[in-house]
Amino acid sequence: xQRGFDDLSSLxxxxxxxxxxxxxxxxxxxxxxxxxRGAASAQLLETLMRAAHSVKGAxxxxxxxxxxxxxxAMEDCFVAAQxxxxxxxxxxxxxxLRGVDLxxxxxxxxxxxxxxxxxxxxxxxxxFLVSLANVLHPSEAPAEKPRKLETTLRAPVxxxxxxxxxxxAATEVKEAAATAAPVIALEPQGYQPTAAVWPPQKGAExxxxxxxxxxxxxxPEAQSQAVALRTEEPExxxxxxxxxxxxxxxxxxxxxxxxxxxxPFAESLQRLKRQHADLTQRLHQLRQLLQEDHLxxxxxxxxxxxxxxxxxxxxxxxxxxxxxxxxxxxxxxxSHRLYLEVLRTRMRPFADGARRFPRMVRDxxxxxxxxxxxxxxxxxxxxxxxxxERLETPLAHLLxxxxxxxxxxxxxxxxxxxxQEAVIRLEARHSAGMLVVTVSDDGAGVDPERVRQTVxxxxxxxxxxxxxxxxxxxxxxxxxxxxxxxxxxxxxxxRGVGLDIVQNMVKSVRGxxxxxxxxxxxxxxxxxxxxxxxxxxxxxxEVAGEPYAIPLTQISRALKLPREKIEMLEGRHYxxxxxxxxxxxxxxxxxxxxxxxxxxxxxxxVVLGDRSARYGLVVDRFLGERELVVQPLDPRLGKIKDxxxxxxxxxxxxxxxxxVDDLIRSVEKLASGGMLARVQRGMVDSTARKQKRILAVDDxxxxxxxxxxxxxxxxxxxxxxxxxxxxWNAVRNxxxxxxVTDVDMPRMDGIELATLIKNDPELRSIPVLIVSYKxxxxxxxxxxxxxxxxxxxxxxxxxxxxxxxxxxxxGEPEA
Length: 815
Prior knowledge:
Blueprint: E1 2-4, H1 5-10, H2 13-36, H3 42-61, H4 65-82, H5 90-107, H6 119-136, H7 145-154, E2 172-174, E3 192-193, E4 212-213, H8 220-231, H9 242-260, H10 262-291, H11 297-345, E5 347-349, H12 350-354, H13 357-367, E6 372-377, E7 382-384, H14 385-406, H15 410-415, E8 422-431, E9 434-441, H16 448-457, H17 463-466, H18 471-475, H19 498-508, E10 512-518, E11 522-530, E12 535-543, E13 546-551, E14 555-561, E15 567-569, E16 572-577, E17 580-586, H20 587-591, E18 603-610, E19 613-618, E20 621-629, E21 643-648, E22 654-658, H21 660-672, E23 693-697, H22 701-714, E24 717-721, H23 724-733, E25 738-741, H24 750-759, E26 768-772, H25 777-785, E27 790-793, H26 799-810
Parallel strand pairs: 6-8, 13-22, 17-19, 23-24, 23-25, 25-26, 26-27
Antiparallel strand pairs: 1-2, 3-4, 5-7, 8-9, 9-11, 10-11, 12-13, 12-20, 14-18, 15-16, 16-17, 18-19, 21-22
Helix pairs in contact: 2-3, 2-5, 3-4, 4-5, 4-6, 5-6, 6-7, 9-11, 10-11, 13-14, 14-19, 23-24
């Protein structure tokens, strides 16, 4: 179908040109960088020439003459290199890269008439053309060229030999489709594009404002190019907004979920089928029993008809179930294919987001006097569009850090026995259902001891604590806002914000980041990200009868913890996770959904957070892993505490997706306010436990640790509390066989604690042993009157004295 030029303008031809310019400038940049590395070849020069030619043709259609002349000049340069009339060295490549920047900048400017181009832009284009003219014709004097070129840029020259201009509105062109591949612009029938003459030649004909003139004769080379363009069949592309695509993906996800609903329905019919089979068998048994009795013919007939009817129903049900099973498989397969196809529309090759990085690394390295090359690995790895857009800024920070901090100067690399050229590798790959993006270099790496000294210097940790930090713990400081190892601030780095931005982005998409360094050999940053934000791999847990989904990427570990491994420290339950003490809390308290379920088995625990803040979340039970289609919550609800989104289960029931970062903030808020309850009694202590448990309450760290070690060495399970108030909270939430307490303590003394215990109907049976420095008789009587079962003075007792008092009160440690 033929359309007028004005009609094509309504279809945003300028947007199509911008897509073309972006694609072709990417090809030009990568090709010029290969030339700079000495990879010159006829094929590479042909690719560069074709890219410049494509930009020129696209610019003619939208009548951006400055781009036409820049691209034509670059095309002449590549042709001269193909004909071996010109050698492209670093200085020439610098000029050509400047031309690429000009092409890209001009293509992105607002849609305005060419005559209204800024004077600065015209001067910049003129300067570039003069520079390239000097490269092509170094012996010619360029004195008159700037004026001619500037005149050409401002208005095309008219002469009596020029053909009449064809109005743009009357020009008929074939509709061009814009694709991720280069856009092919087909010229109108009966017209031939006139090559822009650069530098202007005497007697040359100039293109009309539309860039088209009627040609009487066409050179053979131009004819072959035109035929090649017309015979190509570009792919058709439909322009969709991101919101439309997201809605389409949501509908495809719902279709996938709905198709899974047939499976539980088929299983319920399977139960009906078994009931039918059982009914048929019982009817046969009934007939056999009744045969011994002499039944009338009418009764016998009715019984036979009933048996036959039940058998037919059973067979009919079996047939329909087979058909349903076939339909279920076909529906699930079709819905899955539909979902994957829609999902692929959101995916883009990693190279689309990494296209500007080789040039950025090259320019930055040259400004620092370094020789650095960027290697891209996994360019065709498919990445979700949203993830790719969010990755651009963090990867730019990582690459700048690698060039500035990691890669050494050439003389330093030679002295270290390394090649003069440093190599940075940017790799993207899929692994275990995740997108793994790695930035590594072969530079100097990071010295952990230097990080340790910086941590101490900035007073981020006490020297005694900093000395104990492992290498992994030290490297985590690199992600703190404002943390930097550089002493001076430059335009490139030194403010300590780059890695902070990287970590925030990774956390925002429920990912993780790992860092490894080898001093003198290099550094590696590895980002683990979800393949797409629309699909989530999660662990489903049950809390108070409701399912919750926790993203797998934010779970340190899920385990079932034996109750005997749960201990108490400073009035809180915890367990050992590697070399850490991880505090325990119930999901019921965080989500405010009632009391936890009490059972005698191991506790299902999800470990969340990092080394700086890690908690064990006790849930009712694990429901297994799921791949969920993320459904955003209604924005009218606002931000829901501890919840990020929702999804649908196979049976159509909803499940809430936990916002782990928000949940950890909620836990820390509860802890800082002293409202964090411990794991409730009955969950920790199994009725089958054999060891007896003692609570030691003392405000002196030395005394309570001495008591804890002494009692534990004898075989008693021993928890500690820091004062009377902490001890009162502990004894109410745990099951203890004995309380050992001091008298003089802040917030609540031991006498008051003993009084509260003995006045509580559920706790009064717990023996209380007071251990105090006060040895006056009236002090002892005051303690005993408060309900204490034993009073022991610290000044007189020895280890055996305390242990004997404990045995007298509750017996030996084994029940």
